[in-house]
Design a protein that fits this description.
Elements lengths: L5 E4 L14 H12 L4 E4 L4 H7 L6 E6 L4 E4 L4 E4 L4 H14 L4 E6 L2 E4 L21 E2 L2 H4 L6 E5 L4 H8 L3 E6 L4 E6 L4 H12 L6 E5 L5 H6 L2 E4 L5 H5 L3 E2 L7 H9 L2
Parallel strand pairs: 1-2, 1-12, 2-3, 7-8, 12-13, 13-14
Antiparallel strand pairs: 3-4, 4-5, 6-7, 6-9, 9-11, 10-11
Helix pairs in contact: 1-9
Length: 264
């Protein structure tokens, strides 16, 4: 029996199946942990509107980390921690990307609002996680974009994300996910691991007693900080290499399989 005192769950590719639903077995396993007094923390790159949709019947998580750590909310306390990119840094990043990769689609998440200066083609929606029934980012003038202090900048179709990191790494975190297709940019002090550490300090749990589930690059920091990192079978090899355990895939009840083996 492991001494797990909190569980951190990524969403896409982890808790959510490929069809973006939660399996009954996964739901039941997480609910049993919650009922036994183990806090459940969601840590995702997604914005609140998407998370609220996916988890509308999932009441286990009190703390939710959005935008890879740029926003954290606590349901019971009705409180939040929000870290945005300064306006001047956002402007510089935008200008840099427009010069280096003019074919890119750049959009800006500001808390739970989403903006872009040019429409997103239907053919690129899936890469941004936009389902057919979901709204696209609001198209606004460049003058509006220049005044934004974004929670997160999303760049689609940019092959020079390493250059962005090299140029602005002192100010922002740059993460390439989905096979490098999508670049996610947040404030330097915003990351899943820093946000989860803040939550752990709030609830009085040490990282060594935390079980973390994940599948992609933005989970690497969480894996390195936690005492019991569990990689999904569909995870990137870098996560599997630093995991304590590799479980089944997100489409095969991977979370439940690990919880049933090590906790329940």
């Amino acid at each position: 029996m492991t001494n797990i005192q909190a569980i951190v769950l990524d969403l896409d590719g982890t808790l959510l199946r490929s069809d973006k639903t939660i399996s009954p077995r996964n739901y039941a396993a997480v609910q049993r942990c919650y009922d036994s007094g183990i806090p459940i923390i969601i840590a995702t790159a997604r914005p609140p509107r998407a998370v609220n949709h996916f988890l509308k019947e999932f009441a286990c998580a009190d703390y939710i980390v959005y935008y890879n750590g740029a926003l954290v909310t606590c349901r019971s306390k009705q409180s939040e921690r929000h870290i945005s990119i300064p306006i001047e840094i956002s402007q510089q990043i935008t200008q840099f990307i427009e010069r280096q990769a003019p074919q890119s689609i750049i959009s800006y998440e500001v808390n739970d609002l989403w903006y872009t200066s040019s429409p997103v083609p239907d053919s690129r929606c899936a890469q941004l996680g936009i389902r057919p029934e979901d709204p696209k980012p609001q198209v606004v003038e460049q003058d509006v974009i220049r005044l934004l202090s974004p929670t997160k900048i999303l760049v689609l179709g940019c092959n020079t994300w390493q250059d962005i990191e090299e140029q602005f790494g002192g100010h922002v975190n740059v993460i390439a996910t989905d096979g490098g297709v999508l670049v996610q940019i947040m404030h330097r002090s915003a990351s899943k691991e820093q946000a989860v550490q803040w939550v752990l300090n709030e609830i009085g749990v040490r990282a060594e007693h935390v079980m973390v589930f994940g599948d992609d690059y933005n989970d690497l920091g969480l894996f390195r900080m936690s005492g019991f990192p569990v990689a999904m079978d569909n995870a990137i090899i870098e996560l599997k290499n630093c995991a304590v355990h590799v479980t089944e895939s997100n489409d095969n009840d991977g979370i439940a399989a690990a919880i049933e083996r090590f906790i329940i």
